[in-house]
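Appendix B, example 12.
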Amino acid sequence: MRALLQRVSQASVSVDGSMVGQCGAGLLILICAMRGDTATQAEHLAQKIAKMRIFKDEAGKMNRSLLDTGGAALVVSQFTLAADTRTGNRPGFSQAADPETGRALYAHFANCLAALGPKVETGQFGADMQVALVNDGPVTIWLDTEASAPKN
């Protein structure tokens, strides 16, 4: 799986003008299931993200995790993270999981993250969404599970 984390002071996602998910201080997580990804990878990624020390401690150092801060997460599906831009000018998305698998892994990831403690809200899989955020830092981090990591 592939995820793009953005540390935020707030974030929201709307569909057709109606807000479907939001969070305060925490993470906006844009996530894409890739071809060949498994439920085990979704579970591992949820644990990694929940424990990633990217929030400031009392000394201003990035030493605290989402779990440490009691922060929330907004999880938004984004198949375009699978974009292959190596050739031509139009990205290819053939490495993204099929929609049925993508939907299942997206939901499984969000449920696994919530089970670890943070309040988790989500976007709407497959919808045309508008995402608003206030990036804190800015801190933006790209993660790939082992199977989704680019091959050299």
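Residues 2-148 form a domain with the D-tyrosyl-trna(Tyr) Deacylase; Chain: A; fold (CATH 3.50.80.10). The first helix runs from residue 39 to 51.
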